[in-house]
Amino acid sequence: MTHPIDIPRDPGAVALPATLHTALALAERGLPVLPLREGKGPMGNCRACRNNACDGRPNMKNPGPCACAAPCHAWAAATNDPHILTSPAWAGAWRQATAVAYHPGGAGFTVVDLDNVDAIAWARQNLPATRTVTSTRGEHWTYLGTMTSRNAVRPGVDIKSLMSYARWLGSGTGTMTPLPDAVRALAVKEPAAARPASRPVNAAAPDGGGKCPHRSAAYLERGIAMAEQRIEQAPDGIHRTVYRMFLAVLSAHGRCGCLTEVHIKRLFTAAQGRGESLRHCEDAWANAVAALGM
Predict the structure, then answer these.
(1) pTM to 2 decimals?
(2) Of 58, 7, 95, 16, which is closest to residue 230 (Cα–Cα)?
């Protein structure tokens, strides 16, 4: 099979990283791919995009393609363009990469990530058979079709499709079947009224100086939406992730007067959706406020 770009054949040329070879082969098949650093996480933002500085940053409210030339924005940076994958802006990322991921939603797929034997047993009883790939701790079941991504839809089960990425673990076995309603139903949130905690949130927005000084009125909304997404999609260390997202939001917006109780409630709801208690949320918020001296 010929490749759509010229790969150096000169014996003196620097060999391409193995991860890039894998990525190019997948891109040739139409899969949007991206490099993963050690720990299976995406590459960090470049200097221009650090701390939410870039206007083109994709998020839950603005889910368009990544506007940066580097692989800065996780799933949104995924591409099947070989010229981008082999560009100088991506070279450093491939040298650091330990694995390759792909954007299932961008390829028209949904991955049901089953993390343990109990989750696999549940899937075999409740979901139609489809293409299956063995993962580090369990299996990936891949269906044809896209949907909203959501982690922890039940014990040991994550949904990876739109606005998400999945590690490439091989082609797997079996025939991919259409996305069933049983999987779509897993991403439907339970009504908030089902939660036993009814007391008000004991966390206030710090006093600010009035009008928000940032570049646009949408800046705060993008920041809150991205914090929600990162909490919802954190693979592990949820306590640490919640605290860091609270700290990031407060650092950017805690002193300008634009942060409201509604925004705090959104962050708390995202955290509670990952199993955090209301008390843990309040403690994390109070610790972030104290750390910033507010």
Answers:
(1) 0.61
(2) 58
